[in-house]
Design brief:
elongated, mainly alpha, transmembrane helix, membrane, about 130 residues, about 0% strand
């Protein structure tokens, strides 16, 4: 299996586990699971960074997008099955809402991956005069 696919699998497992843990914690501790969205963004950036370091910029952005797609489909279903506390928001989306969410989250994850990739590229530049 290529490194790219290993990163996809590790990333999807990571975001799935994160979704499961936050769903359980939000229900048990009675807080809105949306507060943990920033954790998802960090995961997207991290995998964008890691894939860029190991492969290239395109792989970094694509890896984050794949993880975002997984998060907005399987991850959302995990949260629903584990009855995540979503506050006053009814967690029963229409097909249109689900598709729009998938598109938006995947695009935002790709953007986070680009940020992680940029950090990876910037951190490997040689210092001039040093």
């Amino acid at each position: 299996m290529s490194l790219k696919y290993k990163l996809y699998l590790i990333g999807c497992f990571t975001i799935g586990a994160f979704d499961a843990l936050t769903a359980i914690a939000s229900r048990q501790l009675n807080f809105n699971s949306a507060y943990f969205a920033v954790g998802s963004f960090i995961i997207y950036c991290f995998f964008g960074f890691w894939a860029t370091k190991k492969i290239n910029l395109k792989a970094g952005v694509l890896t984050a997008a794949v993880i975002g797609f997984f998060d907005s489909t399987v991850g959302w279903k995990i949260s629903m099955l584990l009855k995540a506390n979503t506050g006053h928001i009814k967690n029963d989306p229409t097909v249109v809402a689900w598709i729009l969410t998938i598109i938006i989250v995947t695009a935002f994850a790709a953007l986070c991956g680009l940020i992680g990739a940029a950090i990876a590229k910037y951190s490997t530049r040689k210092k001039v005069g040093g």
